[in-house]
Design goal:
Blueprint: E1 19-24, E2 27-32, E3 39-41, E4 44-46, E5 51-54, E6 59-61, E7 70-72, H1 81-84
Antiparallel strand pairs: 1-2, 2-5, 3-4, 3-6, 6-7
């Protein structure tokens, strides 16, 4: 819900920062940011510092499932085209 988040939920029922979804190389990761384990992935609670790799069609939520505060991840290998891309401007 913070101003610098990619996903913001309006209202004050949730903490400002709950989890982080980010990319390392070709892998997408989900990291819990709170000690109360309110982030759920694959039937497991994620606590502060817990990280999991995300796969296509994984689901995660910021409340105990079932909840409308959940999302399905869509990952496509073709979206990584830029990792191996080289341009004429790049030098060895």
């Amino acid at each position: 819900t913070g101003d610098d988040c990619h996903v913001r939920l309006l209202g004050d029922t949730l903490p400002e920062r709950i989890c982080k979804v980010f990319k390392e190389g070709r892998a997408w990761l989900l990291e819990g940011l709170l000690p109360d384990g309110c982030v759920h992935h694959g039937g497991r609670q994620l606590f502060s510092g817990d990280r999991v790799s995300l796969s296509d069609r994984d689901c995660f939520s910021v409340a105990r499932p079932p909840t409308p505060l959940g999302w399905q991840v869509r990952i496509r290998e073709e979206d990584n085209w830029y990792i191996d891309h080289q341009s004429d401007r790049e030098h060895p």
